[in-house]
Structure formats: C-alpha cells, structure tokens
Design goal:
The protein has 339 residues and is α/β, with parallel strands linked by helices. Helices cover 35% and strands 21% of the residues. The chain contains eleven helices and 14 strands.
C-alpha cells in the first residue's frame, strides 16, 4: 500500500490524567458533590491520542508522525515522550519546560460510558505559541497532513492552518463547541479541508439538534454551515452508538458502530479521527478510511484506557473477525498485509 501523504504534523494537547466513573446517570450538577470510582485507566490528551494510531499503523510504511508541543520537564512528560517515541512518532519537536507542568486532565464518565473531561489550562501545552511553529514550516508541503487539535491555544492552531494553506498541505481540524461559535473560528473554517466533529460540536456549528430517529436533517444542517465557509470541505461527524457519518465528494457515507460491551468511550472520537487520517495517508478511498476509523473507535471502547496500548493490524483483524464486523476488501488487505 503506497503513501499519499508522507508526513503528519500536528498540534494539540499532550498530557495525562485520571478517570472517574460517576455514580448515577444524571448530568453532573453545578453545585453537586458526587461519589465516583477512580478507575485503573490511563488517560491521554487529544494530539497524543489521534496521532498514536497513524504512528502505530503506518510509520513502518514510511509515514512520519511529528507532534509539535510542549511538555513539562517532569516524570509525566518524560513518560509520555517515551511512549510516543515507542509508538513510532518523531518527537524532535516536543519541547520540555521547567517552568510549567505537563498537561493534566480529569476524565469523568457515566455508567453508560459517556462522559467528558476537565483539563488544566495553565500547563506546558498552554505555552505553545504561533512562533513555535516556525520550526516546522519548511516541512509542510502537498504530501503533509496538518492537524490542528484542541487543548493548545487557538491562535497557535489557526497559525498552523494558515501555514498549511500557503504550502498546499491537507488541513485537518477539530474545535470545541465554544470555539465554533466564535468569529475567528468561523472564518478559519475556510482553511480546513477535513473538519472532525462530535455531536455537541456539530450542534454548535449548525445550530441544530439531532432527531434520534432521523439524523439526516441534523447532518445536512451541519454540512450547510461548513459549506458556507468552505464548499469543497469534507466532514467526519461521530454520533456515538449511531456510528460515524462522513461527507466528501458531494455525498454522505455512514459506517455503523458495532454493538459491543463498552468499557469507556473516552478517546473514541479521537481514535476514529486517527484511523481516518491513517487511511487517507495510505491513499485509501474516503469510505474505507472512515471504516478504519470506526473500527479503531470500536476497538477503543472495549478498553478502559483512552489509548489501547496494544493496538496493531493483526489484533484489529482478529477483533473484527471474532465480532463479525464486516470490512471492505481494501481494509481486509491492509489488515492482512505482512508486517
């Protein structure tokens, strides 16, 4: 399988955290004190999660995964850098700071596996400035995927998208619901080729709400809102148990989520995006890339960790076979290729 993109250069959160499972299904209240169980689970931040999958599945085929960020000169930062390197990433653009700690987050989930997180805003990751991207500008070209993910300053992410626009790279981004309401991000959507959204983010972009029985109008409202800024842009919208919907080349495609025993959904959307980027880097058609992303998200929800440490192609192939998950011929070939 040949590469369409030879580099993935990304900015976003790099950090660790804790995972609590809340007691009770009701939403966490503003003034509520809530009992919760501390889980034996490893939690990671957005850039690390998304880039883990292309590094694990495609770095041996020549894809260079280059995260750009700042971590603390502490034990957590050293551990994360080692793990990223072991996964196949080139960590030369990770800078260690003695003046700020590595980003830390507290993830919470409800008994059904849904949830959210609280992330420190004063960590080393928050010190990543637009000027820090000057180090990678010469590496951006038409064979590069440029990824702008949350948990670092918005101005830095927008700077990467602007640089990527000038150098012909594939521009990929995700934003928080609050960011999607700002004029700066609305304007920046014109510089995004692939926008990744979960349900809350899609609602913030479109101003619409999903009908649980018929997602079509919600998805079309989302597409129209994005098309107002970038008519040629593509979308990936994750809708939990309803699977993933992607829009590219003037049509929607849906990949259903397999029915599984869910241990944690934390990191599933990021795993899906990581799979999509892996597929695109390997020159898969968009439909197959979305299918790979959905398979990775399904694999992830069976793990308590936001990054399942053991993921590789043979394990994914076995996972799909045991659970009778149908795969496209292209995906079957990819998973069964010799190492």
């Amino acid at each position: 399988m040949t590469l369409r993109y030879t580099k993935l250069i990304g900015v976003g959160g790099i950090g660790a955290g804790l995972l609590f499972t809340l007691e009770g299904d009701h939403d966490l209240g503003r003034n509520e004190s809530r009992p919760a169980r501390l889980e034996d689970a490893r939690d990671y931040c957005k850039l690390h999660i998304v880039t883990h999958y292309p590094a694990r599945l495609a770095s041996a085929r020549g894809l260079r995964v280059l995260p750009v960020g700042k971590i603390g000169a502490d034990e957590t930062g050293r551990r994360l850098e080692q793990e990223m390197s072991a996964a196949g990433m080139d960590t030369r653009f990770l800078k260690k700071l003695s003046s700020a700690p590595t980003m830390f987050s507290v993830c919470f989930q409800y008994p059904d596996g849904s949830g959210g997180n609280l992330t420190a805003s004063d960590s080393a990751a928050s010190r990543l400035k637009p000027a820090d991207l000057d180090r990678v500008e010469s590496l951006l070209d038409s064979a590069t995927i440029a990824l702008a993910a949350p948990e670092v300053p918005l101005e830095t992410r927008l700077r990467l998208l602007a640089m990527a626009t000038g150098r012909g790279a594939l521009r990929v981004a995700s934003f928080t619901p609050g960011e999607l309401a700002t004029p700066a991000v609305r304007a920046a959507l014109a510089q995004v080729d692939l926008l990744a959204l979960n349900e809350d983010e899609a609602a913030a972009l479109s101003g619409a709400r999903r009908d649980r029985g018929e997602p079509g109008p919600f998805l079309e409202a989302c597409r129209a809102a994005f098309a107002a800024a970038n008519p040629a842009g593509s979308l990936v919208v994750t809708l939990g148990a309803d699977g993933a919907h992607g829009y590219a080349q003037c049509r929607w495609v849906h990949v259903a989520a397999p029915r599984l025993a869910v241990r944690s959904t934390a990191g599933a959307g990021d795993a899906l995006l990581g799979g999509v980027l892996t597929g695109l880097a390997l020159d898969m058609p968009f439909d197959d890339a979305l299918e790979l992303g959905t398979l990775l998200a399904a694999f992830k929800v069976t793990s308590p960790h936001t990054i399942p440490p053991e993921v590789d192609r043979p394990l994914l192939q076995s996972f799909a076979a045991v659970r009778e998950i149908p795969l496209s011929p292209a995906l079957v070939r990819f998973l069964s290729e010799p190492r």
